[in-house]
């Protein structure tokens, strides 16, 4: 688990680093760095319940705000969101954000599960 947590920590630091061209880079960088911190702490056996629960709560609430847009994208027939890096339509950016938050939620959920298991 140590290696997996270290890999996740590095990945999320890299995710935070590439947010400079996003419309709201500070919010995304902060969330991705929080995931990286949670994974980094877990890698060294220093998991912090507060960090994990805070991150889980933030990512779930933020994701729920984008749920209507995600459902709309599904109702549209799930048009491609990866054809270009530039989000040419609102559903592209909103769906990508929802999926990014889903990844964060899954990682925080996994960290929370591991904390409860101990």
Helix content: over 70%
What Rg is obtained from the alpha carbons, in whole angstroms?
15 Å
**β-strand amount:** under 5%
- Overall pLDDT level: 93
Count of DSSP strands? 0
Sheet/helix structural class: mainly alpha
Structural shape = globular
Q: Counting H and I runs of at least 4 residues, what is the number of helices?
A: 4
Spatial separation of the terminal alpha carbons: 14 Å
Largest sheet: none
Uncertain segments are: none
Order of helices and strands: HHHH
How would you describe the overall organization of this protein?
- With 118 residues, this protein is an all-alpha fold.
- It has 4 helices and no strands.
- The longest helix is centred in the last third of the chain and has 28 residues.
- The chain starts with a helix and ends with a helix.
- The mean pLDDT is 93.
């Amino acid at each position: 688990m140590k290696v997996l947590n270290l890999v996740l920590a590095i990945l999320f630091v890299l995710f935070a680093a590439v947010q400079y061209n996003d419309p709201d880079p500070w919010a995304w960088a902060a969330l991705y760095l929080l995931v990286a911190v949670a994974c980094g702490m877990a890698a060294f056996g220093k998991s912090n319940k507060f960090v994990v629960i805070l991150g889980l709560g933030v990512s779930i609430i933020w994701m729920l705000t984008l749920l209507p847009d995600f459902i709309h994208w599904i109702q549209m027939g799930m048009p491609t969101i990866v054809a270009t890096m530039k989000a040419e339509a609102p559903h592209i950016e909103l769906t990508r954000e929802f999926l990014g938050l889903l990844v964060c939620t899954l990682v925080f959920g996994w960290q929370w599960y591991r904390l409860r298991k101990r």
